[in-house]
Design a protein that fits this description.
Layout: H1 2-7, H2 11-27, H3 32-51, H4 58-72, H5 75-91, H6 96-107, H7 116-132, H8 136-152, H9 166-180, H10 184-201, H11 204-221, H12 223-239, H13 243-258, H14 263-280, H15 286-299, H16 303-320, H17 323-327
Helix pairs in contact: 2-3, 3-4, 3-5, 4-5, 5-6, 5-7, 6-7, 7-8, 7-9, 8-9, 9-10, 9-11, 10-11, 11-12, 11-13, 12-13, 13-14, 13-15, 14-15, 15-16
């Protein structure tokens, strides 16, 4: 089954099974039960579909599910679908303004304030998108609220229909944003907590994300250690079939090499990551790939290439509202 394949980190097999199941449900009679089952199936697909970068085929399913939830007056499922649509438009759909509107509208709904099953995943989507666009302050505002809600409701072991633990991931989010705001010691403590929890949960997808976050942190603090950490993260991301982060991780690895005066090797790794992420078709984070390429070319004395990739990085960052790259 799709869920079994996902649990075994066979995401490509799982997403294919999900799509086949959705196709069958779309052809079945439009009963209330079949509509609910289709909506729930589409929601279950979101994690693996995004992680393998196969979101183009996912959009029509999200739109159909949104319409069905609207017609049924199902507020809970409608908000969950709209949150997923927000994530899609920000990362893959090339319309971050619409994506932010979806996410912010969902988070501002009074219906979710006291509903853990809604507040946690929707808050996580908004927090994740804020982190990856460089809005550290918003992460620092939202993440503690979600962490506190999870702890008070004792739902630390719930994944909320995601493949990785939201609890572990959002602690890692807060660690990165805390370090980004200059509180390195506290950010390090948060990452240690996330590592300990990932080991306790024994979930590869969660551990891979924490390893990735740690690698990014070390790129700014200790580039030599960052190399080993990002290599480990890439192995875990590969084993968990997280294609979304693999290309950009190779770029971070190359950047770490540049920071250790090894721009020649670094450029090769960055170019590999840039090709992977470009082939994935995800516009988000291309700005990082081009910025790292610009850095490597600059270190190697190729000013023309450095300028070319710097301009591409800025254009991508402006298109996707990625504040941290705009500032670089």
């Amino acid at each position: 089954s799709a869920k079994k394949a996902i649990r075994n980190n066979s995401l490509l097999e799982g997403t294919q099974a999900y799509k086949q199941a959705a196709d069958i449900l779309m052809k079945m009679p439009e009963t209330d039960e079949n509509r609910r089952e289709l909506i729930d199936l589409v929601l279950s697909m979101r994690g693996p579909m995004f992680r393998v970068g196969d979101a183009v085929e996912y959009l029509p399913l999200l739109q159909s599910a949104e319409k069905l939830a609207e017609e049924a007056g199902d507020i809970t499922r409608k908000l969950q679908i709209r949150s997923a649509l927000g994530v899609y438009y920000i990362y893959r759909g090339g319309n971050p303004q619409l994506g932010w509107k979806y996410l912010e509208d969902c988070f501002d709904q009074e219906d979710i304030m006291h509903d853990v099953s809604l507040m946690v995943p929707i808050g996580f989507d908004l927090c994740t998108s804020s982190l990856l666009s460089g809005d550290w302050q918003r992460v620092n505002q939202i993440a503690p609220i979600i962490i506190s809600l999870i702890e008070r409701s004792r739902t630390q072991d719930r994944f909320f229909d995601r493949n990785a633990s939201i609890y572990i991931s959002i602690i890692a989010h807060l660690a990165i944003s805390t370090i980004g705001c200059g509180e390195v010691a506290r950010g390090g403590q948060l990452l240690e907590k996330a590592f300990a929890l990932a080991s306790e949960f024994d979930n590869l997808a969660s551990r891979a994300y924490v390893e990735w976050a740690h690698g990014i942190m070390l790129c700014f603090l200790d580039a030599q250690r960052a190399i080993a950490q990002m290599e480990q993260a890439i192995r875990s991301l590969t084993d968990s079939q997280n294609l979304l982060l693999q290309g950009v991780s190779w770029c971070w690895l190359g950047y770490a090499h540049c920071m250790t005066d090894n721009a020649g090797e670094g450029l090769g790794l960055i170019e590999k990551g840039l090709r992977m992420h470009t082939d994935l078709g995800v516009p988000y984070w291309l700005s990082f790939c081009h910025f790292f390429s610009s850095t490597a070319h600059f270190e190697l004395g190729d000013m023309a290439k450095a300028r070319e990739h710097a301009e591409l990085a800025l254009q991508c960052a402006l298109n996707n509202n990625e504040k941290q790259v705009q500032g670089l």
